[in-house]
């Protein structure tokens, strides 16, 4: 068994849209007369839009109708889109472009597996559309992370067995999804509480193709 494909999450791995999500979700929480903290926002990483709203409603102790939920989701997304429409390639994490280029030159396929239904829009703003062999977002599968559906669809599009795919994720939901998909994973970040990954990198300067390949030599 060897490394044949790398599947990247988008938010928090290639660029940082968490700040935009936080501002948008904070507005939603304000409508429920609830103060959403940055720490709570971290728990929404990798979680789909509807599930994120349900968590905020639960935290706030509110009860609202389905129509009100849909209105909040629609407004939240409009706010978020206004933020990401101003994004540009300068917001790509340092070291990612050179690493992604090198791993493709090594003959390893690369794909995006994101829970965000706006993933393609973000990738377009970052001018990265042509940098991946496959892109799957939250609108392409029935179930979002922590279900394995997104990663399994990326593997299918890459025509690669899940056991030969490596997922790079910054959320617990994503790491759990990778494990359920039968894929090894790398945690990108500094939260020591994350579980299920094969290794950790704090940034792209910590990453190496050799260290990723070594995960498949056991």
Short description:
It contains nine helices and six strands, in the order βαααααβαβαβαββα. The chain has 218 residues and is α/β, with parallel strands linked by helices.
User: How many structural domains in the coordinates?
Assistant: 2
- What would you call the structural class? alpha/beta
Strand percent estimate: 5-15%
Poorly predicted regions: none
Helix proportion range: 40-55%
The total beta strand count reads: 6
**End-to-end C-alpha gap:** 9 Å
Shape: globular
Give me the secondary-structure topology.
Elements: E1 5-8, H1 18-31, H2 38-42, H3 49-60, H4 66-84, H5 96-105, E2 109-113, H6 119-125, E3 134-136, H7 149-158, E4 165-169, H8 172-180, E5 184-188, E6 199-201, H9 209-214
Parallel strand pairs: 1-2, 1-4, 2-3, 4-5, 5-6
Helix pairs in contact: 1-4
Please, could you describe this protein's structure?
- The chain has a six-stranded parallel beta sheet.
- The chain has helices spanning 18-31, 38-42, 49-60, 66-84, 96-105, 119-125, 149-158, 172-180, 209-214, and strands at residues 5-8, 109-113, 134-136, 165-169, 184-188, 199-201.
- The protein has nine helices and six strands, in the order βαααααβαβαβαββα.
- The relative contact order is 0.18.
- The radius of gyration is 17 Å and the shape is globular.
- The longest helix is centred in the middle third of the chain and has 19 residues, at 66-84.
- Helix 1 packs antiparallel against helix 4 (66-84).
């Amino acid at each position: 068994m060897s490394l044949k494909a790398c599947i990247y999450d988008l938010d928090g791995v290639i660029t940082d849209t968490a700040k935009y999500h936080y501002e948008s979700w904070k507005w939603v929480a304000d409508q429920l007369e609830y103060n959403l903290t940055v720490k709570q926002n971290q728990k929404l990483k990798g979680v789909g839009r509807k599930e994120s709203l349900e968590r905020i409603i639960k935290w706030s102790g509110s009860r609202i109708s389905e129509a009100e939920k849909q209105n909040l989701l629609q407004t939240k997304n409009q706010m978020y889109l206004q933020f990401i429409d101003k994004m540009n390639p300068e917001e790509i994490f340092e070291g990612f472009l050179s690493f992604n280029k090198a791993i493709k030159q090594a003959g390893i396929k690369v794909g995006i597996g994101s829970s965000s239904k706006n993933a393609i829009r973000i990738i377009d703003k970052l001018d990265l559309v042509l940098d991946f062999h496959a892109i799957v977002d939250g609108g392409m599968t029935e179930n979002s992370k922590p279900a394995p559906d997104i990663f399994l669809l990326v593997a299918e599009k890459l025509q690669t067995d899940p056991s030969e795919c490596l997922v790079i994720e910054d959320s617990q939901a994503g790491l759990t999804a990778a494990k359920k998909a039968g894929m090894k994973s790398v945690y990108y970040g500094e939260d020591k509480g994350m579980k299920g990954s094969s290794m950790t990198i704090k940034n792209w300067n910590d990453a190496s193709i050799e260290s990723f390949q070594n995960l498949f030599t056991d």
